[in-house]
Design a protein that fits this description.
The complex is a heterodimer of chains A (384) and B (372). Chain A is mostly helical. In chain A, 53% of the residues lie in helices and 6% in strands. Chain B has two domains: 216 residues, Orthogonal Bundle (Citrate Synthase, domain 1); 99 residues, Cytochrome p450-Terp, domain 2, CATH 1.10.230. In chain B, a hairpin with a 2-residue loop joins strand 3 and strand 4. In chain B, helix 3 packs across helix 6, helix 6 runs parallel beside helix 7 and helix 12 runs parallel beside helix 14. The chains are: A mainly alpha (384), B mainly alpha (372).
Chain lengths: 384, 372
């Protein structure tokens, strides 16, 4: 192989880490995934298991954006800013109604956010925009859901918090405090997670000096991938296929023999049980007791099979597995799982973009040439 | 295992590729083994698209098939056309492109990226931009003409009449020159999105967002802004020295990779001289002055003119308003984006780098009631 890379001809082949595994692509104070110790740390130094019991999604978003938890006054201000930014613009509404009602909700979200942010002049990402984008996501998710079902879209309710209002707009009735708590906990847990693929996408787009809408739209596109945000849907689908506790062992054995991957297991960074999965597993017991029993048995069998096959690998349950059970308990249809993930992660995406502005430098890596030796002369069309 | 943080991932290999090579030391851009200077003047955009997607130049029959497929995929879907019409007429054309591409690809749902999907997406870009260009002027969109090739048809749909051959050739060369360029930020964005097994529309929408940034595709319109401010060649020296005192950046200069004159800029410069003499008179004087000033400031740096600088003059000669410069860049680069997406999924691994935590050590949160 000719070692040509970027600007330099090298006498050696530079190291290439597929998937940029282990490559440090940013310095960040927004969050830290301490995989070796199974810790997720949010901005300010808070362990996720300490934060989840005491903070709502709004407080968490404030923390990720501002670097500290809000006091009562700051939280009230943020809530007001968010409730007043829940409405779609005319162009966003127009774009949404242009779409077929059965469109995948993530496609609707990507398109509507893009239209909502279609502006005359390029704007530098700001905290106000981050708040507005975060506030409007549930409006789109709920509208996409109700359009698909052929029922009328419901307006937001100003007296409800972020999680409660999403459920209100989805269902048109006031949700129980319990379900709001489960959803809110999910939203807190998933709000940020280091340089995952969608967050990294947002940071790459931001690095060109582009606007916040472009960053979020790109991140939604990345989150849509089954290897990223689509994993919850896959986990829930697998549980549906297994169907019954007695069916777990034979189903999993057969799947393993057919080299099918178990959805909801394995993570590149964690070497221990994902701390978010631990919290969601607890919640799942009360949120969805029946599905919990099936999932717990599935987990047990999956981990046993995976351990037998690869005793050297830390094949722990990932967050998507238990999140899919909790969201089922909340009453979210599985077609909306990835969108609900986006509802949470948009706080992290925007926090990362805002952080990156302080020292903006275009992210433009190198590539390793494995094509033919340069300088072949093209044959004219007639001679080919 | 975890390495040092390298800002901007400069010099970090993020992919193995056989699509294009930016050989910065020698000032060469290579598509699939062919040096750009050997392709630029003689190849049609369709031939180069075939080269980037399939890895080789087409035979006559293959070229005819691709040309036909492209021409047959230009029509917007009903949803895409309706989205376009829902957007405000003063919106940045890049925002319109981003929003409509997000819809145009929808019929394909979560299909794995394929060459036909790449062709369909590529075919739709000029239609979207031309329709929006006309909508802004209160005009109906013009139906595409199957007998016209990609470049000619774009100009036809923009203006409602056939463009002179000279301008068609100029646009074709521009589209060939800009079709791919290694691991630039928008292409890299498309590959990161593809690495999650997402769909072509998501990859393209992300790439358009990245291209919009002034540090990437947004630069040519800024070149135009700066030249307009300078006004005349006589004014260049004084304006630029004064600008420098105010730390104003000269638009269209410097590149992370090239250590010599950008081979694309060289070709575009010659085209500018021929097609846009007024622009050229001002631009060449500004270039000369900029390079002299930059050299005085940083004699150690190779401060060459980049591709955006003379792109501006060529696109202006073609008759495009400056806010259509970045999306016309996308009309070309969509070929490279999709080629890279296909290469990424052929041998995929989720692109998920690490970050280095620079925040405080773990501590306990204070409950809301106790926070001051």
């Amino acid at each position: 192989m000719v070692a040509l890379y970027g600007s330099v001809h090298l006498s050696f082949v530079p190291e290439f880490s597929p998937g940029l595994e282990g490559v440090v692509a940013a310095e960040t104070a927004v969050s830290e995934v301490d995989g070796a110790n199974g810790r997720l740390i949010y901005r300010g130094g808070y362990l996720i298991e300490d934060l989840a019991p005491v903070a709502t999604f709004e407080e968490t978003a404030y923390l990720l954006w501002n670097g500290q938890l809000p006091n009562k006054i700051a939280l009230e201000t943020l809530r007001r800013q968010m409730t007043s930014a829940r409405r779609l613009s005319d162009s966003a509404r127009g774009a949404m109604s242009a779409l077929d009602a059965q469109t995948d909700a993530m496609d609707t979200l990507r398109t509507t956010i893009s239209a909502q942010g279609a502006t005359k002049t390029l704007t530098t990402p700001s905290l106000e925009e981050a708040i507005a984008l975060t506030a409007v996501v549930p409006t789109i998710v709920a509208a996409a859901h109700r359009r698909a079902k052929g029922i009328e879209v419901i307006a937001a309710r100003e007296d409800l918090g972020h999680a409660a209002n999403l459920l209100w707009m989805l269902e048109g009735k006031e949700p129980s405090a319990e379900r709001v708590h489960w959803l809110d906990t999910y939203l807190v847990l998933l709000a940020d997670h280091g340089l995952n693929a969608s967050t990294f996408t947002a940071r790459v787009i931001a690095s060109t000096g582009s606007d916040l809408t472009s960053c979020v739209v790109g991140a939604i596109g990345a989150l849509k991938g089954p290897a990223h945000g689509g994993a919850m849907y896959a986990a829930r689908t697998m549980l549906d296929k297994i169907g019954h506790v007695d069916n777990v062992e034979p189903w999993m054995q057969k799947a393993h023999e057919e080299h099918r991957r178990f959805a909801g297991f394995g993570h590149r960074v964690y070497r221990t049980y994902d701390p978010r999965a631990k919290i969601l597993r607890e919640l799942a017991q009360t949120a969805a007791p029946d599905l919990y029993r099936l999932a717990a048995r599935t987990e047990e069998v999956a981990l046993k099979i995976l351990h037998e096959a690869h005793p050297e690998r830390p094949n722990a349950t990932n967050v998507d597995f238990w999140a899919s059970v909790v969201l089922t308990g909340v009453g979210i249809p599985k077609e909306l799982f990835t969108c609900v993930f986006a509802t949470s992660r948009v706080a992290g995406w925007t926090a990362h973009v805002l952080e990156s502005l302080a020292d903006l430098r275009i992210i433009r890596p190198a590539s390793l040439w494995k094509g033919p030796q340069p300088g072949i002369k093209p044959l004219p069309l007639a001679d080919r | 295992m975890t390495g040092e943080f390298v800002p901007g991932l400069e010099g970090i290999v993020a992919a193995r590729t056989e699509i294009s090579l930016v050989d910065g030391a020698n000032g060469r851009l290579v598509y699939r083994g062919y040096v750009i200077a050997d392709l630029a003047e003689d190849m049609s955009f369709e031939e180069v698209a075939h080269l980037l997607w399939y890895g080789r130049l087409p035979t006559r029959a293959e070229l005819d098939a691709l040309t036909l497929e492209l021409a047959g995929s230009r029509l917007l879907t009903r949803a895409a056309a309706a989205t376009l019409n829902a957007l405000p007429t003063d919106a940045d054309p890049m925002d319109v492109l981003r929003s409509v591409v997000s819809v145009q690809g929808l019929e394909h749902r979560l299909e794995k990226p394929t060459i036909p999907l790449a062709i369909h997406a590529t075919a739709s870009f000029p239609t979207i931009l031309a329709a929006y260009h006309r909508r802004r002027q209160g005009l109906e969109p013009v139906k595409s003409r199957a007998d016209l090739a990609h470049a000619a048809n774009y100009l036809y749909m923009l203006n409602g009449k056939e463009a002179p051959l000279e301008l068609v050739r100029a646009l074709n060369t521009y589209l060939v020159l800009l079709a791919d360029h290694g691991m630039n930020a928008s292409t890299f964005t498309a590959r990161v999105i593809a690495s999650t097994d997402s769909d072509v529309a998501s990859c393209l929408v992300g790439a358009i967002g990245a291209l919009k940034g002034p540090a990437h595709g947004g630069a040519p319109s800024q070149v135009m802004d700066q030249l307009e401010q300078i006004g005349t060649p006589e004014n260049a020296e004084q304006w630029m020295r004064e600008a420098r005192r105010r730390k104003v950046r000269f638009m269209g200069f410097g590149h992370r990779i090239y250590r010599t004159y950008d081979p694309r800029a060289r070709i575009l410069k010659a085209m500018c001289e021929r097609l846009n003499p007024t622009f050229f008179a001002l631009a060449s004087k500004v270039e000369e002055t900029a390079l002299a000033i930059l050299h005085e400031e940083h004699p150690e740096r190779p401060q060459a003119t980049n591709v955006e600088f003379y792109s501006a003059g060529v696109l202006q000669a073609i008759g495009l308003p400056k806010e259509f410069f970045p999306p016309t860049f996308a009309v070309s680069r969509v070929v490279g984006w999709t080629a890279h997406v296909l290469e990424q999924v052929a041998n995929n691994r989720l692109i998920r780098p690490q970050s280095e935590y620079i925040g405080p050590e773990p501590r306990k949160p204070v409950p809301l009631a106790e926070r001051i």
